[in-house]
Every structure is written in structure tokens, then in C-alpha cells.
Amino acid sequence: MPEWRWAAGALAAIFVFEACAQENCIACHGRGGNSVTPGIPSIAGQPKLFIENQLVMIREELRPSPQMLPVVKGMKDAEITRLADHFSKLPAKSTETGKPDPKLAQRGMARAKALRCGVCHVADFKGQKQVPRLAAQREEYLVAEMRAYRDNKRKGGDTIMAAALYGVSDADIDALAHVLSRLP
Asked: Is the residue at 97 inside a domain?
């Protein structure tokens, strides 16, 4: 096959992929993967392995997600890897508006330090490998997920998170989410 035909085919595949990512993912997760929709997480800047793991767990019905299942049900591993690679390279941007509450932010950072959140999520809370980015994630989404972990209602989740958040008050979770959602 002449080189130009291979290049044209590769370019066409990129355009088809981009259209799919724009149409299916961005419809809910927001332009550039930064969600503005309540209950929907931002996926831009998430670690590639984290995104891959989540998509596979949803596809295999190990993590319930009625909204996502139809999107990923027949997806091949290579497509999942490509999507994960794409969104992991996009810049994460906080969609929270308004200035942070200084007292709430101080309380949140103190709790993050006491709970040792930076050990797994790293010091800047951008995540690593299979551990998600918390920085610039939607505040209400973080609150809901942390409470679900703490209350042992999060299916397909990491048991370490349930243990880490065990006994943490709603007020402390609110403070954690407030400060994490506003980090760059």
C-alpha cells in the first residue's frame, strides 16, 4: 500500500475517533472533558490507567453506571485505551465559580493532610496510575462520591477509600470537596 493511503486512513481514523469522543463523551462530561453538569465528573486530566479501569469496570458491569453502560458495552479494549489516552492529555479546569471560602479551604487542607490524601492522590491531588485526580473535580461530585465511599454505598470502588473516609463527618467532606474542587 502506498504511504499516502496509509496516512490518509490513519487521518480518517483520527477524525472518526475525535467525532465519537466529541459526540458521546463531551455530551455529558463537558467540552474538553470538563463537566458543567451536576452529578457528572470531569474526565480531562484523569490518569490514563484510571480512565481505562473505570471504563472496563463499567463495560463489565462491575461498577454500576446506567448512563455509561450503553456507551461502553460493546467497546473494544483498544478503543477504551484510545479514549483514556485522549482525555488524560486534556487540561483539567475547575468549573467552580466564586472565590473559595478561606475557612472552609483551610479546614479542607487540614483534613486532607490528616487523612493523608496526598499519599495516593499525590501532593498536588492530580492522581496517578489507577488513582483519580481530585484537583479541579466538581465539588458536588466529590461530596457525593466521598459520602458514598464512607457510607459503603460506592459499588466498584476501592476499599481503601472506604477505610480512609470511615467516620469522617459531612462537614469535613464538604470542606475537602470545597478546597479540592478549586485546586488548579
From this structure: no
Task: Report which secondary-structure segment, H or E, holds 106.
Answer: helix 102-114
Question: How many CB atoms are located within 10 Å of the residue 28 CB?
Answer: 15
Q: Mind listing the pLDDT tens digit for each residue in 12-54?
A: 455 445 555 557 898 999 999 999 999 999 999 999 999 999 9
Rg value, the chain, Cα:
18
Instruction: Choose among 138, 144, 123, 149: nearest CA to 43.
Output: 138
How far is the C-alpha of 178 from the C-alpha of 17, rounded, in Å? Answer: 35
Containing structural domain, residue 119: 102-181
Q: Which among 127, 159, 152 has a CA at the least distance from the CA of 43?
A: 127
Q: Flag whether 94 is in a domain.
A: no
